[in-house]
Every structure is written in structure tokens, then in C-alpha cells.
Amino acid sequence: MFAGGTPTPDGALIVNGLGFALLSTGVVCAVAVGFASLTGSRPAALTVLIGWQLVASPILANITSLGSSRKLVLTQAIAHFSPVNLGDGGRGTVVTMSLGLAVLVLALWLAVFLALGAWRTRTMDA
Questions:
Q1: Of 14, 15, 70, 115, which sees the most CB atoms within 10 A?
Q2: Residue 90: which domain range?
Q3: What does the DSSP assignment read for 60-93?
Q4: CB atoms inside a 10 Å sphere around CB 21
Q5: What 8-state DSSP symbol labels residue 5?
Q6: How many Å apart are CA 39 and CA 45, to the nearest integer?
Q7: How many Cβ atoms are within 10 Å of 17's Cβ, its own excluded?
């Protein structure tokens, strides 16, 4: 009814979109918790992470001279799992990577920030 002549999404796309939203939100939330524990300041951590996600990540993804190291940017690994083509969409390029590399990059970001946050929390009480 609201499509206005454009193709409507099917049920699989809606479920995949929900899965993508849960994955991306969960990963960024876990990284934010680890980073906030590491810095000890929630407002500073949120400001830095919002700046990283919205400003620095797209800039790094568009610097082609960085080559394959652009695949280590969190937003590029998350974009790999998007059920729709993010393409250029005004936010910059999407770096192509394999499924295994995207999973590895997500796991690496999670492991590093959660480990650093746990270490800081453990040493803060000592």
C-alpha cells in the first residue's frame, strides 16, 4: 500500500534486516561498554565512539591509499552483513571482504575492547 509502485520487501529481507540490526547494535554496544570501562568516563567514551562511527570510519574507508588495511575498520566489517546494498549511499565506499574476514574483524574488535575494559575494571578496584 505504501510502496507506490516500487518493489516491496519480502519476509526474508525483513528477517535478515532484523538480524543485521541486532548484530550491528550488539557489536557496537559491546565495544562501547569495553571502551567506556577503559576510559572511566561514559560521556567521553560516547563522544569518541560516535565520532569514530560517523566521521572517522567513513573517512578511513574512502582513503584508497590505505589498501587492504581498510578492511580492519569496524563499520566495514558490519556493512558486510547488511541484507541490502549499502553502495555509495552518500556515506562513502563499502570495502569488499570475505565472510571469514568480516567475522574475524568483528571478533577482533570485540575481544580487544572487552579484554581492555575487563582489565581496567579489574585493576581499578585493586
A1: 70
A2: 28-125
A3: HHH-GGGGGGGGGSHHHHHHTT-SS---STTT--
A4: 12
A5: T
A6: 7
A7: 14
pTM (2 decimals)? 0.80
What is the pLDDT at residue 39? 85
The Cα–Cα gap between 108 and 72 comes to 9
Residue position matching grid coordinates 565472510:
99
User: Does 107 reside within a domain?
Assistant: yes
Give pLDDT, residue 94.
Answer: 74
Amino acid at 54: L
**Which ranges of the chain have pLDDT less than 50?**
90
Mean residue pLDDT of the chain comes to 85
Residue 80: count of CB within 10 angstroms of its CB: 19
Output the CA angle 45-123-121, nearest 5 degrees.
40
Largest CA distance in the chain: 63
